[in-house]
Amino acid sequence: MDHPETLTRAAGADLTMDASDPHFYTEANREAYLEIHADDPVYWVDARYTQPFWNVCRHDLIREVGQQGELFTTEFGVHLNAAAFDIKTTGTNPASALPVALRPANVMDAASHRRVRNPINTKLRPGAVAGLETAFRAELRGLLDQVPVGGPTDFMAAFATRVPLLVTTRLLGVSPEREHDFATWANIILESFEPGATPDFQAIGEMVAYFAAEVARRHREPRQDLITTMLDTELSDDEVVMWCWLLLVAGIETTGNLIGAGLDLLLRQPEALAQLVADPALIRPAVAEMLRIVTPGRYIRRTATADTQLGGHHIRQGDAVVMNFTVANFDPVTFADPLAFDITRRPSEALAFSWGPHRCIGSAVALLESRVAFEELLTRFPNIAPRGPARFRPSLATAVVEHLPVEFRP
């Protein structure tokens, strides 16, 4: 069924079905997700802001797309910022034109992706990263020692965005003294995902040069860190550089914004915050529910390599196919009362780290960081209070919290 561009709620406010519009991903538009699920969770978007695409919003169909890397390839980009590539006639693979150090694993073909991922996959699985909890917890306690107590403070700058930066630098074994540069580089990469963005290639070059120097240093002076571990595999030096910046950027994208947006949810639902303070065992399911509601990575784009059928629709070779995790996480068939933020929910079906072979390699680290961050934050500052509304960046690619004013209260 064709979707109108906008719907009107009983209250008179417009909802949009255009998933190329940043407003589509705002909290005010979530009722539209219920309309999509009731109507047809696979529909064509004649986008105003990007190339046109199929918007796939149903859980089982997203998993189907995610598992079929040959049929729904990542090679032609995973975001909607690039021009539509007609693989029927050109056969051009834009990822192959990138220098190796800038060719992220998430845009590689299935075989190349397996080759660069397998050597470090076991190092980032839940059992392996669990051993890092003590060190991570110490880092976060040190971070909380530094926050100003009393008076308005930006939670994002003081804590949320610093968590993944400090944890990732410890994981890689690089100095946190370059924290400002890391944050700048990560934001430049994230902003390049937006339609019409022009990447800052000078800054990206500086980022690559920094990590290339770290890789060269590990050849001379091996350490007990992930960079040294990667150098003991069949990965090339440039591929190790790629993993360094990709893990850094992915950490900012998922963890920093999850912590910020998650606290915003708690501050707007004080009874839930009080529950977590009283019963820290609820923090683990609460983080899972935050992931469902926030969905830090909003979607992933694939490209059909052949004509196929999906959800009763004919998908043509070359069509862009969007796995819309955001809308899928509000599926009323999968989640009872999906618009509600319920920290006692056990949303094991939530799609927050993609699906299939390309599922986020750092998901276990992100979950550990987030849980420990809330455990330490609420132990030290159980009376943390809002000092104004959160400000979110309009974005198609990621849920970015730009500013969250709070008061740290013991």
Residue fraction in strands: 5-15%
Strand order of the largest sheet: 3-4-10-7-5
Fraction of residues in helix: 40-55%
Order of helices and strands: EEHEEHEHHHEHHHHHHHHEEEEHHEEEE
Q: Average pLDDT across residues?
A: 89
| DSSP summary: helix tally | 15
Kindly name the structural category.
alpha+beta
**Which oligomerization state do the chains in this entry correspond to?**
single chain
The tally of beta strands, per DSSP, is: 14
In short, what is this structure?
This protein is 44% helix and 11% strand. The protein is α+β, with helices and mostly antiparallel strands and 410 residues long.
Structural features, described:
A hairpin with a 6-residue loop joins strand 12 and strand 13. The protein has 15 helices and 14 strands. It is of the alpha+beta class. About 3% of the residues have low confidence. The strands form five sheets. The protein has a five-stranded mixed β-sheet with strand order 3-4-10-7-5. Strands 6-14-11 form a three-stranded antiparallel β-sheet. It has a two-stranded antiparallel ribbon with strand order 1-2. The termini are far apart.
